[in-house]
Batch of 2 targets.
Target 1
Amino acid sequence: MVTRRRVLGFVRLVALCAATGWMCGCERAAVGQGGGAITSATLRVASWNVENLFDTENDPTNPGDNEYTPTGRQLWTEEVYRIKLERLAELIAEMKPDIIGLAEIENRRVLVDLQKVLADAYDCHLPEIVHREGNDHRSIEVALLSKYKPTDTRWLIGNPTGREMICATFSTGASELTVIMCHWKSKLIPAGMTEQDVDNIRIREAKVARRAFERKLRKNPGAAVMVMGDFNDDVTSPILTRDGGLLVSRGLLKTNPTCLYNLSADIPANRRGTYYYYPKRLWNSLDSISVSPAMLDASQASTWTVQEGSYQIFKYPEHLDANSRPKSFRLVRPKDADPYYIYGYSDHFPVTVTLERGMAEERQEAGDF
Ligand SMILES: [Ca+2]
Ligand SMILES: [Ca+2]
Ligand SMILES: [Ca+2]
């Protein structure tokens, strides 16, 4: 049966392709001309897959949210939703981000609800929202919450029937910081597809993200550009390193100046895990933040550099289960008892980094240029 959503999705897709030319990996037109230059000396940036942040209403155009209703399979009542928001806000307030990328966001409403809990319960103010509805089959998108309004926001489309990426540029006064937020397709193989089909989509997503930051770095090798998110693959995977240009060796940056460095490579391989895959009893480094070469060297021209030792997989103590794995927020269905919720947080750990205003910006502001 062809659902209304699919028809709408197809019509939208055709219009989108015509408008933006995604076939060549082009960016969606810029929207939102904002202000709000970053004035602080440091900037904390985070990325977190918050795991199924759905509201409780059944969106008739989205079959992907049917289980997240009070009578749906997840028994997703208003009370459960409120507790989920509360948990997420509690952890985000601990991280104290200035800009946070979020994955698995149903719609704008859940972001507004999360903002409100952050502000009211934790005095944590992230007033700017970057989000739009996409074509994902469950209608879960990436989003940014931020203290600052981007001066330019684009959506990158690597998979026209999947999740888009956000490419947001913030003004830092004299120059810019660009943040690309990703949630690439998972390695699960849907019916009718092969592993190669899925890999091809994932490779295209990687290449589209890469093209966006390469363009910035060719124009300005000192540009501050970050790529972060849930890549649904380990940081050493060829799709990240070979196709996405997110390198795990600082040495290779010298000969590949338009590639980025994945900060998770600074963490020993056995401690990079952000997600625990129970069927194979394996940790995966699905979530990470990569930065442009100039951001690694405070003497270089970048506006923002990584504060030494600040990158971390953020392990909020309450987020750890008895085995130090991420404590998910999930419904348990015992065979001989009523279902009940484990009020965790998410099946992913967040990642976070602190940036410092670079020398170039300071000199520029002092009028030395
Ligand atoms: Ca919903
Ligand atoms: Ca629905
Ligand atoms: Ca959605």
Target 2
Amino acid sequence: MDELSLQKTKGAYTSAGIHPWWLEDFTRAEILKLQDNILNLVREKRLWAIGETGIDRVYPETLEYQIELFHWHRELADDFGLPLVIHNVRSGSDFLNILKKNPPKSPWVFHDFRGNEELVKELLRLHPESYFSFGISIDNSPQIRELLPTIPLSQVFLETDSQKHLDIHEIYLRASEKIGIDLDFLKSQVWLNFKRISPQHLSQ
Ligand SMILES: [Zn+2]
């Protein structure tokens, strides 16, 4: 999120947010500073998306603060018309509750999604612009292997997450096998999804 890392990603599509895990390590003052930095980047139109933000129930000590910050991120995404990239761990019902109270204007991308078919259906019902991103879980999680083919292709993304040793081409290949569709077709579908959710100032 600093100047240096942004320069490195020049020409790429950048997202910035405060990860729920960071709340253990940073003070409130430091988090406020990060919020300020993100706000500046958004105003300068340097971001493709907001996030990761999210709710991780493996860290209950910071849960309240996570939710507070999630709302801050989601409002920012709504105000500036940017997609929201969401870290979600055992928090499906939290997002359902939030969606019931206050439907968003921006697309929500649930990254490294680990929920079930029921949750996907419910999220899509409450927010049709929900997207589900998958990485290595399509290989190592039997639940996700089963889930992937049931998700509408128009809502799918693929990722390596933070695992630098993974090759995104490999993930696409595995996904096309699991879904049972042609690799190039899958690529073009995900590209269409990317274009569809890209903010207007970047979609030309
Ligand atoms: Zn995450």
